[in-house]
Amino acid sequence: MSHSQTAICKFSIASWSESLVVDIDREGTTVGDAYYPTRGATRATVNYSYAGDVQGTSTLVYLIAYKADAAPVFGLEHFEGSIGGREGMCVFQHIGSQDQGSVSLRMEVVPGMGTGGLVDLRGNADVSIAGHSDSGYELVLSYDID
After folding, report:
1. In terms of Cα–Cα distance, which of 124, 146, 145, 128 is closest to 137?
2. Residue-wise pLDDT tens digits, 34-71
3. Are 50 and 58 in contact (CB under 8 A)?
4. Distance from C-alpha of 125 to C-alpha of 141, rounded to nearest angstrom
């Protein structure tokens, strides 16, 4: 579905906490306090900050699979702030895949979960990230608001 408006912004990771859900082979890697299974799944709670046409903060809960090649990533993100100058809250659904060092996913607005000026928000964005960036990641949200 195409949308009539576009919001361009950058989002940055304010915090990331990941914990083990399942470790299939009981093999993995520990980095700092986090353990990443070779094959398995983790749950991550992530806080983002947004600047640009999308301004605000969010909390995202991911379920992340790990395996040798591209593995699925699913999440729900609760956003509070403004999009195109309209203030409110909304929820984004994330569905995609990740492998070592890169993530590709599609974000979609979950209908019926907005408030304030975002109550009738519809939209989506495709996100591709390769590696870490201290300056944030670009996001282009295509959207409509009735």
Report:
1. 128
2. 888 999 999 999 999 999 999 999 999 999 999 988 89
3. yes
4. 5
Q: Please, what CATH class does the domain formed by 5-145 belong to?
A: mainly beta
Local structure of 68: helix, strand or coil: coil
> Other C-beta atoms within 10 Å of 109: how many?
25
Per-residue pLDDT band at 33 (split at 50, 70, 90): confident
Instruction: Count other C-beta atoms under 10 Å from residue 18's C-beta.
Output: 17
Length of the chain measured in residues: 146
Q: Where are the domains of the chain?
A: 5-145
Residue with tokens 């000026």: 117
What pLDDT band is residue 101 in, cutting at 50, 70 and 90?
A: confident
Tell me the Ramachandran region of residue 136: left when phi exceeds 0, alpha when psi lies from -120 to 50, beta otherwise.
left
Bridge partners for 88 per DSSP: 81
> Could you tell me what percent of the chain has a pLDDT over 70?
99
- pTM to 2 decimals? 0.91
Handedness of CA 86, 96, 51, 18 (dihedral sign): positive
